[in-house]
Amino acid sequence: MKNSGIPWIGEIPEKWKLERLKSQVVEINEKNSPLKTDYVLSLTIKDGVIPYEEKGDVGNKAKENHEEYKLAYPDTIVLNSMNILIGAVGICKYYGCVSPVYYVFKAADSSDLRYLNYIMSSTPYQKYLRKYANGILEIRLRVSSDDILKRHIPLPPLSEQQAIADFLDKKCAEIDQMVALQEKFIEELKAYKQSLITETVTKGLNPNAPMKDSGVECIGNVPQKWDVILLPFVFRNLDYLREPISAEQRSRKNPIYDYYGASGIIDKIDYYNVDDDVLLIGEDGANLRMRNLPLIYRATGKFWV
Questions:
Q1: What pTM, to 2 d.p., does this model score?
Q2: pLDDT by residue (tens digit) across 33-43?
Q3: What does each C-alpha distance from 119 to 49, 99, 112, 151, 168 come to in angstroms?
């Protein structure tokens, strides 16, 4: 082995080279104007490059004017200049058009496309790119194509690149399959948890208790001795305490208090506007549509909402 001289890479085999990425790829920056295709593609961190119609109600909406996009081709790497730091890169299998904030790269004959994609998909590489990112806000950081292409990468001979890519294709497919099984199991447990909660809070702990019709469709029957009342009789609405603050205006000199948004704790700030034990119920935001996080949180003590 030999020292590469680059912290994120470390040591590499003696016969490997260090090359700038620009020597191994060609950037395709071909505009979709005049219109050549209206087949819009999207890049997701989880699924890579997919048709926009398969993405669902997640992320940015597609532009109505497809001539504002650039072209992408099969057997290219598509990279999101604003999300590469969190893993937005993938191999494209389609001919279509992509957002102008994406970069499209074609591998040189001396490189294996899959090997280059695995390098750019590695977390240490993405963290290394962070030092070249520009932007005022954390969520708007952007890495230029030039800065990406100037970075050195480890480069084994082509045959070894292909062998590495073959190995990773096989192993990653096996891991993805295991992850999918675990995710299915987790979803089943979540469904069981919800059914258990619903059954218990509406039917009680005694399966033999006499029941009566609650008169509420979503509740159904309840134990005969239970009452069914409206929420205002058991809760006080403290919505008037809410005071949203934009990220730019939040003071963080001594951030010790949780700042709650529609998706739970999203920041720490210097002040609090609530000191109580309350339930916070999301009423807007992307989480209300996606339902990938809880809509109700219990918050206690001092916090800002």
A1: 0.73
A2: 999 999 999 99
A3: 17, 23, 11, 12, 11
